[in-house]
Amino acid sequence: MPIPADDASLAEVAAALAAPGKGLLASDESVGTIGKRLEKAGLVNDEETRRAYRELFYTAPIGKAGISGAIMFKETLQQAAADGTSFVDCLTRQGVMPGIKVDEGLLPFEGHDLATGETSTRGLDTLAAAAAGYRQGGARFAKWRAALRVDASRGFPSERAVELNAQQLAQYAAVCQAAGLVPIVEPEVLIDGTHSAAEFGAASERVIGATVAQLWRQGVALEGCLLKPQMVIKGADAAGGRAAPEEVAAATLTVMRRVVPAAIPGIMFLSGGQSEEEATLNLNAINVMAQQQGKAPWSLSFSYGRALQASVLKIWSADSSRAAEAKQMAVALAAANAAAVRGAYDAAGKHPSVTSDSSLREAFRGWHGPTASAPAAAAAAVAQ
Ligand code: 13P
């Protein structure tokens, strides 16, 4: 079936975002999430600090380094560089498409045992109006994150979590396409836990398979959307330490081949708590293996948050007069991952990052409550 005329431009945008050697900068952390990272680095979480931090990335030549699109938070979409140039213009002028996070964070299931930590995602009620506004404001694509927790001993993710999140992801994708925005569909299977690579793979297969089936059922044009999953890795607390990049590559490609249709132009992995170097090495191994085996119909790329930002924040938070050095780091991290998309990263070389291996782990980022002392209502609003 030929895709309708309106969807043709969606397909063009999706193809450009996932063009060979290109990937996405996920710089769309909510005020709460970026605030935690700024504060951990010794900075204040105020609007000006957030703006100045984003400026480092958007005014660095990240487009030339391989960034095709940058996902922003709603506050950031409205902001401008110190010289008055809007961030949307800073990005567009260097060939980087502006994108927007459109979900409103995670929420425990209503009436569900809160302690399970299973969530759905908020934001569908107001999405149609919001999406039209974001498109007018210059966004070309839009991300929605679902978070699925793995605990094989309890049957997690539960069927209910898988199906509800798949339905929400497909509804969001359909609404965004109707508003002229390419959906970046993110069913994140969380790294938190002791699950083996096999358990992670089985959960990923269920979650991504259900999501793709819902996209198809709800009439989403697959050519005009991108998928943003986690790689198939071990749980962060699994026995035996991290898996080798070749193991991650083999497990990831197996799952993706089983459940992701060739019509989807790009699989843009998140970094999800991997170290900056690990995220690059794993992505490189995935592409090297895909090229050797010749059975990958999609671009295998990145939409990294922490793995493109952590070292930049480390430099800038140490001394804000080191902005030029921080920008160079933003470019170097983008270039390393763009090389990995081509399977051309020098795995024996020195990675540009300056953070420690474990520092990007944020325990249960998908779920921050409740605790014995926190009332359930307060715990119910979960930041992303
Ligand atoms: P990380 O790469 O830090 O996981 O962030 C990607 C993202 O956008 C999660 O929603």
Can you offer a commentary on this structure?
With 384 residues, the protein is an alpha/beta fold. The chain has one domain (5-380): TIM Barrel (Alpha-Beta Barrel). The chain contains 13 helices and 10 strands. The protein has helices at 5-17, 31-40, 47-58, 74-77, 87-93, 127-136, 159-178, 197-217, 245-259, 276-293, 306-318, 323-341, 376-380; strands spanning 23-27, 67-72, 97-101, 106-108, 119-121, 141-148, 182-189, 226-227, 266-269, 299-304. Strands 8-7-6-3-2-1-10-9 form an 8-stranded parallel beta sheet. Helix 9 (245-259) packs across helix 10, helix 10 packs antiparallel against helix 11 (306-318) and helix 10 runs parallel beside helix 12. The two termini are 37 Å apart. The model is unreliable at 365-384 (pLDDT under 50). The site of 1,3-dihydroxyacetonephosphate has 10 residues, from helix 11.
Helix-strand blueprint:
Blueprint: H1 5-17, E1 23-27, H2 31-40, H3 47-58, E2 67-72, H4 74-77, H5 87-93, E3 97-101, E4 106-108, E5 119-121, H6 127-136, E6 141-148, H7 159-178, E7 182-189, H8 197-217, E8 226-227, H9 245-259, E9 266-269, H10 276-293, E10 299-304, H11 306-318, H12 323-341, H13 376-380
Parallel strand pairs: 1-2, 1-10, 2-3, 3-6, 6-7, 7-8, 9-10
Antiparallel strand pairs: 4-5
Helix pairs in contact: 7-8, 8-9, 9-10, 10-11, 10-12, 11-12
The structure holds 1,3-dihydroxyacetonephosphate (13P).
